[in-house]
């Protein structure tokens, strides 16, 4: 064999080795149904590469409202669920779609609105604020998509005793980012998770008007879809993600995600 043939053979073998190495780095792919807030806030772009490096497991994210994400898992179209509506999550477990729910992290909801605050809602009482919005027929954009944020909003309206939300109330049936864009372009009020708000690039005249109410607490949880329901679910790989995101490495990765020096999510898996 001459030198050129030897070099060619060596290059071919190197190419095969590289291809094999690439194939083994991501030996498996799991599908995660999650909320739009974890995606649109930029958290997953920060978090998932760290998990993929640690595990060799690739994660495909289907970002939806929490209700839709749970329905995706109920159809067996996801291996793991990462959402933020504890009541709905506990129902999911009770129905047998997951063996357990594990807390992962939290942040809070905030009421966003025009800086001039024509409805006069500024403060730390979400119930009082919603009463003022309804009484004044203020423009309000609701996600209306059965997401965790939408579920929280509906819960606050109920706590406020408001049935008629006023003529300014509109449901967009959309994710958090589009809802914020609508509020920004129309000068409306909107309930948002803080993470998506801090990463939002088009605030216009909007600002945080109501925050600090303990009712605005926003907890996230992770659940592995039960393989007894769906034998094709990649439960072992999905469990590796659930274990990692609640481990010190995963919790540290969550805590380290910041925008302009502000932490978006606070790990609490061990609390």
TrEMBL record:
Keywords: Signal
Signal peptide segment: 1-27
Residue intervals of the PBP domain: 26-248
Domain of life: Bacteria
Protein name: Tungsten ABC transporter substrate-binding protein
Organism of derivation: Bordetella genomosp. 13
């Amino acid at each position: 064999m001459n030198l050129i043939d030897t070099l060619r053979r060596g290059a071919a073998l190197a190419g095969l080795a590289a291809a094999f190495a690439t194939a083994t780095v991501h030996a498996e792919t799991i599908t995660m149904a999650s909320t739009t807030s974890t995606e649109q806030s930029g958290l997953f772009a920060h978090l998932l590469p760290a998990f993929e490096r640690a595990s060799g497991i690739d994660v495909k994210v289907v970002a939806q409202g929490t209700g839709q994400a749970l329905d995706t898992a109920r159809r067996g179209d996801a291996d793991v669920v990462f959402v933020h509506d504890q009541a709905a999550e506990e129902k999911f477990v009770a129905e047998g779609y997951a063996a357990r729910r594990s807390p992962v992290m939290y942040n809070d909801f905030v009421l966003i609105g025009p800086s001039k605050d024509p409805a006069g809602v500024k403060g730390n009482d979400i119930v009082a604020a919603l009463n003022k919005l309804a009484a004044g027929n203020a423009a309000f954009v609701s996600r209306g998509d059965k997401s965790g944020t939408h579920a929280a909003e509906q819960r606050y309206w109920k706590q406020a005793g408001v049935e008629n939300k006023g003529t300014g109330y509109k449901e967009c049936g959309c994710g958090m980012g589009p809802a914020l864009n609508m509020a920004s372009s129309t000068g409306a009020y909107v309930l948002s998770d803080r993470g998506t708000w801090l990463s939002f690039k088009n605030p216009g005249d909007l600002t945080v008007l109501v925050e600090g109410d303990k009712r605005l607490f926003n907890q996230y949880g992770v659940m592995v879809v039960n393989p007894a329901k769906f034998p094709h679910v990649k439960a072992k790989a999905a469990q590796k993600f659930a274990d990692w995101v609640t481990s010190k490495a995963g919790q540290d990765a969550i805590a380290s995600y910041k925008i302009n020096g502000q932490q978006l999510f606070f790990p609490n898996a061990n609390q």
